[in-house]
Design a protein that fits this description.
single chain; about 325 residues; alpha/beta; Arc Repressor Mutant, subunit A; D-Maltodextrin-Binding Protein, domain 2; 5-stranded mixed β-sheet; 10 helices; 12 strands; disordered C terminus
Length: about 325
């Protein structure tokens, strides 16, 4: 028979996995560190295996703890969904929607959806974490957010996803007189703006440069799409950016053209059970509908100039054809 008294201990173990220390988990749960440690020791005695081990100044899960983590995450998700649903039935404010999203997707996709939902549900509460896509997936997997809108990511085991739209990429650069030469011809003469290492935009850029054998004269690394656009608008450099971000640009100051790189899928990733709460399900449905609208608009963009999209797998064929 299950000892119901151990359920709080499981949730404390989840808090430790999320924060990396007993002290931080205790603060998160508004308890003392000794109380949390006592819970974990009781759980370890019951299971007969150690669940935590020292790691520098903090702690980490043992192999047994890692094996148990997916099940504990599901338990936490189910519990949160249940209380959110019961809270809505009782007339209390809905649960907080915790969403991770990158800067440009937040502006172009999330803002209109949340604005409309707040007009319909003034009591709606949410917490938005602005981060890159890989980190967004990690936050969902750890249970630190309920869902994330990400670009070019595969869902890890136990995480559900819904495709929103295909994201093409564009070259953007300052206008230089009346010249109409392709922006890619200026890559060897003007500074190249690069998104952060590890981002999908950076990977596409490096694949293109490698396949095209282009060596930039100067590089400027930027942490976000918005800052990349600001550099371009200021007349400094050419960059590769998601097409959805074009709405932020002053078309009188910059040029853009479709880039010959693969489009990437933008998806909504969320924890199992997320959509059981009415507010969360409504949010996800609105996000999917807005994504389809954006996808139709982006699908009408002009094709790339002069060459086919370059992918890592297609480099050899492209060179053989030259």
């Amino acid at each position: 028979m299950i000892d119901a008294g151990l359920l709080p201990s499981l949730l404390s173990l989840l808090a430790i996995a999320r924060t990396g220390s007993v002290g931080a988990a205790a603060r998160l749960q508004h308890r003392t560190s000794s109380a949390i440690s006592q819970q974990i020791r009781k759980l370890e005695r019951h299971l007969g295996v150690p669940l935590l081990e020292r790691a520098g100044r903090g702690v980490r899960l043992t192999a047994a703890g890692e094996a148990a983590l997916p099940g504990i995450l599901r338990l936490g998700t189910e519990t949160e969904a249940l209380f959110a649903h019961l809270g809505e039935l009782s007339g209390r404010p809905p649960a907080i929607l915790r969403v991770a999203v990158s800067d440009y997707l937040g502006r172009a996709l999330l803002v209109p959806v949340l604005r409309e939902m707040r007009e319909e549900q003034p009591r709606l509460r949410f917490e938005i974490a602005t981060t890159h896509s890989r980190e967004g997936v990690r936050l969902v997997a750890l249970g630190e957010v309920d869902c994330a809108v990400v670009t070019g990511q595969d869902p890890p085991r136990g995480i559900e996803s819904a495709r929103l739209f295909e994201q093409p990429f564009v070259w953007i650069g300052p206008r230089r007189g009346r010249g109409r030469a392709p922006l890619t011809e200026r890559l060897t003469r003007e500074p190249l703006l690069r998104l952060g290492a590890g981002s999908q935009g950076r990977r596409l850029l490096e694949d293109y440069l490698g396949a095209s054998r282009i060596q930039p004269v100067s590089t400027i690394d930027v942490p976000s799409v918005s800052l990349l656009l600001a550099y371009v608008s200021g007349g400094l450099g050419i960059g590769l950016a998601p097409a959805l971000a074009l709405h932020e640009l002053d078309r009188g100051q910059v040029r853009w053209e479709r880039a010959a790189v693969p489009a990437l899928s933008v998806t909504l990733m969320h924890r199992p059970g997320f959509r059981r709460a009415a507010a969360a399900d409504h949010f996800a449905a609105r996000l999917v509908a807005e994504g389809r609208r954006i996808g139709r608009r982006l699908g009408r963009m002009a094709p790339p100039r002069g060459r086919e999209a370059v992918t890592p797998a297609g480099r050899g064929a492209a060179r053989a054809a030259r």
